[in-house]
């Protein structure tokens, strides 16, 4: 894969990568660091990609590994008050409540939900990306939806 093709494919994934990294790290700065490291690693390992049609999945897996590595290195807790203000501020109170509820979810529930609902990966693809059994991913997505619903309903009252 040449530089132009790699750049073209990577640029097409930029927004998706950012959303995944922010949902994983809960920090805009950490998300950008993870993206940069993932792209560097992907560039250096581009020869290992056998099928160019799987570029998005391959790059997402690298990004998730980079996020995990970054969080392991930092070993810190992020308080709810420290969650980032995303690039596009919510238009209404309901969107803000939903975003806060999403970031309040534990990582093990938040990431599968984001990958499945927001990024459009199937449950089987999420299971592959996270190296988890399909049943575990289904359970985590269902629990995340339930927790989000409860949190949003509690906030509305």
What does the secondary structure layout of this molecule look like, with pairings?
Layout: H1 3-12, H2 14-25, H3 28-44, H4 55-74, H5 93-104, H6 107-118, H7 123-130, H8 134-156
Question: In oligomeric terms, what are we looking at?
Answer: single chain
Sheet/helix structural class: mainly alpha
The major beta sheet can be summarized as: none
The total count of helices amounts to: 8
CATH architecture of the largest domain: Orthogonal Bundle
Average of pLDDT: 83
Shape: globular
Q: Give the CATH topology of the largest domain.
A: Rna Polymerase Sigma Factor, Chain: A
End-to-end span in angstroms? 54 Å
Notes on the structure:
The chain is mainly alpha-helical. Mean pLDDT is 83; it is low at 77-81. Helices cover 73% and strands 0% of the residues. The chain folds into two domains: 1-78, RNA polymerase sigma factor, region 2, helix turn helix motif (Rna Polymerase Sigma Factor, Chain: A, Orthogonal Bundle); 91-157, Winged helix-like DNA-binding domain superfamily/Winged helix DNA-binding domain (Arc Repressor Mutant, subunit A, Orthogonal Bundle), CATH 1.10.10.10. It is globular, with a radius of gyration of 16 Å. It is built from eight helices and no strands. The relative contact order is 0.12.
Could you write a compact summary of the structure shown?
The protein is built from 8 helices and no strands. The chain is mostly helical and 157 residues long.
């Amino acid at each position: 894969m040449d530089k132009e093709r790699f750049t073209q494919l990577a640029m097409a994934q930029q927004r998706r990568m950012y959303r995944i990294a922010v949902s994983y790290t809960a920090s805009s700065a950490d998300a950008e660091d993870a993206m940069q490291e993932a792209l560097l690693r992907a560039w250096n390992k581009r020869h290992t990609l056998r099928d160019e049609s799987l570029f998005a999945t391959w790059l997402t897996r690298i990004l998730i590994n980079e996020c995990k590595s970054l969080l392991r290195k930092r070993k810190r807790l992020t308080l709810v008050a420290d969650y980032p203000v995303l690039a596009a501020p919510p238009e209404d109170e309901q969107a803000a409540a939903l975003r806060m509820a999403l970031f309040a979810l534990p990582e093990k529930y938040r990431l599968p939900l984001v990958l499945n609902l927001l990024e459009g990966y199937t449950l089987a693809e999420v299971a592959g990306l996270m190296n988890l059994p399909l049943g575990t991913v289904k359970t985590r997505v269902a629990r995340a939806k339930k927790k989000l619903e409860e949190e949003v309903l509690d906030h509305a009252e």
